[in-house]
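Next comes the chain:
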Amino acid sequence: MTTIPHTQWRLIKTAPAQGSWNMAVDEAILETAGGGLVPPTLRLYAWDPPCLSLGYGQPLGDADLDALYTHGWEVVRRATGGRAILHTDELTYSVTGPANEPRLAGSVLESYQRLSRALLRTLEILSLPAEAQENPLVAPSSDPQGPVCFEVPSNYEITVDGKKLVGSAQARRKIGVLQHGTLPLYGDLTRITQALVFSSAETRERAAARLLQHATTVETVLGRIVSWEAAAEAMAQAFEQTLNLELVPAELALAELERAEELVETRYSNPEWKKTR
């Protein structure tokens, strides 16, 4: 296998923030890093308050807006595909850079598999026996596919004992590549079913049961809580080790902060953006 040339990336850790700001920052970095104005970037972050993120093409009607309001949770639409995730009690990462960056080059699957080596090494550092296996077939079910991202592992998704542990999505644009994903650290995964619309209470209960059959958290596997800080340190170390990188701690550039604020107003907190694409 050809060795990837050594290089430097930025490492940015941001404080827990609202979903609209988190998604706007990822897109702002896509514009700057994709355009070569700043180095490729690994960003590590969290969400406050909890936020339901919908995939780019997912219907807003999947979200139970009244329930979200009752719980004090938010909803945002991602720039990437996939299905709904309730972001809370997790480590979220984003990787952003130009499409010709060797670690991001090629097809979605090629770049995803490259980055997955770093994600798998992250879990190895945390003593989690994870793997990424080919899974092209979705298990048959008496219910139609639901709106929950973590319900069924996708092809080459990262799992522990067959249960999905890391969910990732990627957007490839002319200006560059954005992949972001989530590592659930602890808490009740079935909380997401309280934020989504189901035809009946029984359907909701079945979705919650399926979710526990097909997904897990770091706490469930290890029997103890791993802090956000420890998981973030493991991920940074893993990216350096597996992708031949030096991660240089940095802050968001002023232009990125200004662009993020603009994107919050014009896109990610805009009711029109939240509607079905």
About this structure: The domain at 7-274 is CATH 3.30.930.10 (BirA Bifunctional Protein; domain 2). Residues 136-144 have pLDDT under 50 and may be disordered. The CA atoms of residues 168 and 181 lie 4 Å apart. The helical segments are 19-34, 65-71, 108-125, 201-214, 218-222, 228-243, 254-268, 271-274.
